[in-house]
Design brief:
about 350 residues; mainly alpha; two-stranded antiparallel ribbon; 13 helices; about 0% strand
């Protein structure tokens, strides 16, 4: 017979039961690269979210404020760590005339951390921060729309099967066969009159809602296929039959018993979809159907330096700076790389079979 002391001693060494998400966190912590990328993404969200207006308040100007004194006579923008005079009112003056006279008395100075963004002399660092906010708003918003549509259509097709499954599957194949980038440019150029003026009471810049809706409505097919395959493999399980026996409705079974099993791979795919949407926003903007100036996005910053497909602007060393390409490109590369690595780590953490 086991004594009470022996019972408590043996029970003390037994592992505590852990939930699904606790095990996911344990597995994710083993992947230091994915964890580091997750920390970087959290820092990025803080920087482009509350960090951008805080920095604008610190330096005393916004992302669209002009600084003619940050451009020399040959229209070459100032470099990093430039302290320049704030711009006087340009309403009745030639902006290029400021290069030939001293600033008026009382004009304050300001810091351009990464220099000027071009011939208008706007703050490049501040525009990268606000541009990152716009690009992430588009990428995350479109991903949420795509995941929502994909979950609804995929769960319906996988659970009901039969004719419903055939119709939704053929429709999914049709959307997958479309040349996505060309479709986005076509719709964004011809059929979005009025959408560019919707800003949700100032929460979104012009053109952001347009791209969120267009990208989200044409990128839902992969989430739909993922959910359909998962639901098809789960609907014949014993717990689904038990739910039917106690009188649960189909909608409750899908919502309560099936979707929780689909959520982990969808979270992993969602991070990859956000990275893809960032690149789509840049491509659409380069093709002239995305974000337009003066609104800053990572795509519009590069398009402002190199021009668009229809109106290219070849690199001219005499009137531009190399970091106008390097800085936005670095921000894009680090963000997309972090999203891909974090998504891959999250996928492996949510799939115990892939962890050795």
């Amino acid at each position: 017979m086991v004594s009470e002391a022996q019972y408590y001693e043996e029970s003390a060494v037994l592992p505590r039961p852990r939930g699904q998400w606790a095990l996911v966190w344990i597995r994710l912590k083993r992947d230091r690269l994915a964890l580091g990328c997750g920390v970087f993404l959290a820092f990025l969200l803080v920087a482009v979210g509350p960090g951008a207006p805080l920095y604008a308040k610190l330096v005393g100007h916004g992302p669209n404020d002009l600084f003619p004194y940050a451009v020399n006579v040959s229209l070459r923008p100032a470099g990093p760590l430039t302290v320049t005079w704030a711009a006087p009112t340009l309403a009745d003056s030639d902006p290029f005339a400021f290069h030939h006279k001293a600033p008026p008395k009382g004009t304050k100075k300001t810091l351009l951390l990464l220099g000027a963004d071009g011939q208008l002399g706007r703050d490049e660092f501040l525009r990268i921060l606000y541009g990152g906010r716009v690009s992430l708003q588009i990428a995350i918003g479109a991903a949420l729309i795509a995941l929502t549509i994909g979950v609804v259509l995929g769960a319906t097709a996988g659970y009901l099967g039969g004719v419903v499954d055939s119709v939704i599957s053929r429709f999914t194949d049709l959307v997958m066969a479309l040349p996505l980038l060309l479709v986005l440019v076509l719709i964004g150029s011809l059929y979005t009159h009025g959408l560019t003026d919707w800003t949700l009471h100032g929460a979104l810049n012009k053109g952001v809602l347009q791209l969120i809706l267009i990208i989200g409505l044409f990128t839902w097919f992969y989430p739909a296929r993922i959910v359909r395959g998962q639901v098809q493999s789960l609907r014949q399980r014993e717990f689904v039959d038990a739910a039917h026996m106690v009188g649960a409705r189909d909608a409750r079974i899908v919502r309560t018993h099936l979707l929780p099993h689909v959520l982990p791979p969808l979270l992993a795919y969602g991070t990859l979809l956000v990275a893809t949407n960032i690149m789509l926003e840049i491509g659409v903007t380069f093709l002239g159907a995305g974000i337009h100036l003066p609104t800053a996005s990572w795509g519009s910053l590069l398009a402002g330096t190199w021009g668009s497909l229809l109106n290219p602007n070849p690199f001219n060393p005499a009137s531009t700076q190399p970091w106008l390409t390097i800085c936005p490109s670095t921000a894009i590369f680090l963000t997309v790389f972090a999203l891909n690595q974090f998504g891959e780590g999250l996928r492996e953490a949510t799939d115990p079979r892939s962890v050795q």
